[in-house]
Every structure is written in C-alpha cells, then in structure tokens.
Design brief:
By secondary structure, this protein is of the alpha/beta class. The chain has two domains: 253 residues, P-loop containing nucleotide triphosphate hydrolases (Rossmann fold); 196 residues, Rossmann fold. 31% of the residues lie in helices and 28% in strands. The longest helix is centred in the C-terminal third of the chain and has 19 residues. The two termini are 41 Å apart. The mean pLDDT is 92. InterPro entries: Class_I_gatase-like, CobQ/CobB/MinD/ParA_Nub-bd_dom, CobQ_GATase1, CobQ_synth, GATase_3, P-loop_NTPase. Keywords: Cobalamin biosynthesis, Glutamine amidotransferase. Catalyzes amidations at positions B, D, E, and G on adenosylcobyrinic A,C-diamide. NH(2) groups are provided by glutamine, and one molecule of ATP is hydrogenolyzed for each amidation. It comes from Gordonia defluvii.
Length: 503
C-alpha cells in the first residue's frame, strides 16, 4: 500500500486524533511503513523531541502508535494559545514569534512552504502518511489561508475522509452540510465519511447512512462504536472541564483510596501529566477550580500553564492561592509542575511571556524565577529517591536562589526541582509516567494522609499502548478496509458535486 489520506472533521473534537492513531497502529501491525502528520496544531499539550524541538502531544502519541520516535516532522507548525486572541508560534519545533488572528495572513506563505516540504519528505520516506486535519474542514471563512485542511489536501493532492461524532447528535446533517458548503473543487476531495462513537444498534442507523450516500454520492466507510476504554487524552482540544474525572468509567465503583485534585488553570498546558495518576487503581483524579476542593483532596496538582503570570492572577482572584498556602502549612501533599512550580516562588520576572515585569509569586518557596528569551526544550533523565526517572522540559522560566533541597538529580549531576516534606516541585513533564516514581509518590501521599494505597502492576506505557490497539481493533472490525485502501491509494473516482437542495 502506498499513498495518503487526510482525516478531516465535520466538527472540532470529532475524534480525528484517536482515529489517526488507530490507523497508524493498524497499518503498522500489518508491516506498512506509516507516519502521522498534522500540518498545524493548536494545543498547549506538547512533547519534547529528541532533536530539541516540541510538537503537539497528539502527534507524539500517533508516532508511538506507528512505532516511531516523535519528530518535529510530524507537526511542523504548533500554535500555543497564550490568550483568546494571540498564540505563540512554534515552527519545526522552535519558537518563531507571536501571532494574532488579524495578522496570521502575514505568516501564511512561509508556513505553507514549511508544511508542504515536510509532508513531501514524509511521503518519500514512508509508504503511507495519515494526515490529521484541524478542527472542522467546513470553516470556509478561513479557506483562503488554510494550510491544515482542504488547502493542504488540494496542494498535496490528498483525498479526504470526514469524521463526525454521532455521540453529539446531528451527525448525518453534519456530514451532509460539511460537504455541501464546500466549493466544487474541495467537494471533489471528499471521498467518504466515518461516523464515530456510535451507541446502539447499527441497523437503526443504516437507513440514514443509505440516504446520506444518495444525497452526497459518497459512502460511509465505517460506523465506529463508542468505546469507554479509550480515555487517554490524544486530542488537541482544551483540557477537560472543571469537575471532569480522568480514567476509564466505572473503574472505582466503591470509592477511591486516594483523591487527587488537579487545578484547572485557564491556560493549563500538558494536562497529560496527571493521566498517569488516573491509571493507578484506586486513585481518582478530578479537575477542580475552587478552594474547597484544594483543601480536602489527598493530593493537589498545580500543573503547567502557557501563561504563568496570568494564571497566577486567576488563582488569586478565586482565593485558590490562600488554599494552596494553607495546605502547605498543614502538611497537605502538593505536586507542582513547570509553571505551577514557578508560581510557588517569591518573585516572577517576566518580560517574555506576559511582559508584566516583576510579579510577586505565592511566596511558598525561597526562590525567584526569571523568564529567559531562549526557551528550554529538552529530554531529561535522572533519579528520584534513587529511582530511575525520565521526563522533558518546555519552559522559559529559570529558577534561581532556591534554598530547599532538590527533588531530582539529573544524569548530568545537576539538581532539579524542590522537595520539602510533602511538597514536590519540578520542571519535568512526563515524570509520573515512570511507574516506580509515580507509585513511590503516591505511597508517600497515602502515608501522609493515613490512607490505603495499593500500587498497580500494569506499566503506564502498556496502558497507553493498549489504547492504540483498542482503536486499531475497532477500525479493523468496523471500517471497510477495501474502500479505505482504495481511498489511500487514490483508486477512487471523483465524487459528484452537491448542487441540489433537500426535498
């Protein structure tokens, strides 16, 4: 098999990321050299690559599904929202500036050439490239500057399959309307549909699928069932809302041994840091945004953020800063990661991210933070409590003047982070994916809280790999493989243009 396909969405968050991961896994299991690609990702969930760049977390997951090491080639443009109107632009893994919605057109041609060059190189090196679109492909107001959806498909000669999330309702209308609103040339790119997250009897849906084919001239290649075992965050959407619980549904029917409260900052980044905690049996992880939840949890996680100073102000507005201080004074366990760790110091000097200058921190740790113009992006390895550990750093802030003992010891002999009784802080993302480190931390939390904790036995890497296999199995069972292969290999005829209205 040789070729490629763009998996586009009828809406945002339709499940494109997981479907691309599943297709990568399915083809890789069959010995096909397959790679993922997302031209332009908007996400604050990112991963450091071996070559010192950063890419969206979803593309790193898709690369692992394909049996590949994450690379900046898989996600050449990453937009990291710093506010509602501006995003930090990362090009081929390196920060390239700040862009607003109004001036993005100035970047268009430069980014287009980067995207097309990287996609062309992947298609030369791999048998199949599975491309993930961004949001909905029906945003015709953005078509002129598009480099991630039909603009990319047109320039690269890619066929398109459109995914709709039927769990939201209106799926058939989404698929029809998404196709019909496109220009004739763009419509011809759309070769079929995928319906995702279906619950119930497929026979009840069949008449609607048949009618959709009559109206559009395009077949639905598969109706993929809803699967509760798919819970790890491979999406690029905003983090789960306040009150949402991580982990497979129904895993803790009799109540948790440990309750973890992850503070849902407005611009939270790398939310996946807490996923590994939710993979432990008996541990309940919930996103929270109120002081009471901070006071009562067994462990509080103050996560990373793309806007450290702004989110520090948000903590103060809600009174969560006081709850965090009171928790530390009372000996309540708290884990602070990256931006959350930087907030704990006496002062933050930021002329880079927010331009706010010197801002008082929470004053819990005797340290200061100054934002450097050069971003630190690197993989790390070392030890925690004598246990081998690994992670990665993505931050501008540099800590100075720390008087507390370091929590980690990096392989280069430098100390990192802070450990003070049951307060732990670090810049390392992904640290809790190390099974022994995660379980040692939770054992200390349980001891401090007088709670039971029974460590799991399944490695987190296995939990993550199982997600890819579950999705691959769903696709193998519920997608017309012959039709899919024909689309990927470019063996389908041009479909009709929708010109009629419904009667």
């Amino acid at each position: 098999m040789r070729g490629g396909v763009l998996i586009g969405g009828a809406t945002s968050d339709a499940g494109k990321s997981m479907i691309v991961a599943g297709l990568c896994r399915l083809l890789a299991r069959e010995g096909i050299r397959v790679a993922p690609f997302k031209a332009q990702n908007m996400s604050n969930n990112s991963v450091a690559t071996l070559d010192g760049g950063e890419i969206g977390r979803a593309q790193a997951a898709q690369a692992r599904a394909a049996g590949l090491e994450p690379s900046v080639r898989f996600n050449p443009v990453l937009l990291k929202p710093g506010s509602d109107r501006q995003s930090h632009v990362v090009v081929r893994g390196v920060p390239a500036g700040v862009v607003g919605a109004a001036d993005y057109a100035q970047w268009r041609e430069r980014l287009r050439s980067v995207v097309l060059a990287d996609l062309e190189s992947l298609r030369a090196d791999f048998d199949v490239v599975i491309v993930e679109g961004a949001g909905s492909i029906a945003e015709i107001n953005l078509r002129g500057s598009d480099i991630a959806n039909l603009g990319l498909a047109s320039a690269a000669g890619l066929p398109v399959l459109v995914v709709s999330d039927i769990d939201r309702g209106g799926s058939l209308a989404h698929l029809f309307g998404t196709t019909a609103i496109l220009s004739p040339d763009d419509q011809r790119r759309v070769r079929g549909f995928l319906i995702n997250k279906f619950r119930g009897d497929p026979a009840l849906l069949a008449p609607g699928v048949d009618r959709l084919a009559e109206l559009t001239g395009r077949a639905t290649l598969g109706v993929i069932p809803f699967e509760s075992r798919l819970w790890l965050d491979a999406e690029d959407s905003l983090a789960a809302p306040v009150g949402a619980r991580l982990g497979p549904p129904g895993r803790i029917p009799d109540g948790p041994d440990l309750r973890v409260a992850a503070i849902r900052l407005p611009r939270v980044s790398n939310t996946t840091d807490v996923e590994a905690l939710a993979a432990e049996p008996g541990v309940e992880v919930t996103w929270v945004a109120d002081p009471a939840a901070v006071a009562t949890a067994d462990l509080v996680v103050l996560p990373g953020t793309r806007a450290t100073v702004d989110d520090l102000h948000w903590l103060r507005e809600r009174g969560i800063d006081r709850a965090v201080r009171e928790r530390i004074v009372s000996g309540g366990p708290l884990l602070a990661v990256c931006g959350g760790f930087q907030m704990l110091g006496a002062t933050i000097v930021d002329e880079v991210e927010s331009g706010s200058g010197a801002v008082p921190g929470l004053g819990i740790l005797d340290q200061s933070v100054r934002f450097a113009s050069r971003k630190t992006v690197r993989r790390r390895a070392g030890t925690v409590w004598g246990i081998a550990a690994h992670g990665y750093e993505i931050h501008h802030g540099v800590v100075a003047g720390a008087t507390d003992p370091p929590w980690l010891m990096a392989d280069d002999g430098t100390g990192e982070g802070v450990e003070r009784d049951t307060l732990w802080g670090t810049h390392w993302h992904g640290l809790l994916e190390s099974d022994e480190v995660r379980r040692a931390l939770l054992t200390r939390v349980a001891r401090a809280r007088g709670r039971p904790f029974r460590p799991g036995v399944v490695p987190f890497e296995v939990v993550r790999a199982e997600q890819f296999d579950v999705m691959a199995d769903l696709l193998a069972a519920h997608v017309d493989r012959g039709a899919l292969a024909a689309v990927i290999e470019g063996r389908t005829d041009d479909p009709p243009v929708i010109t009629h209205t419904l009667t």
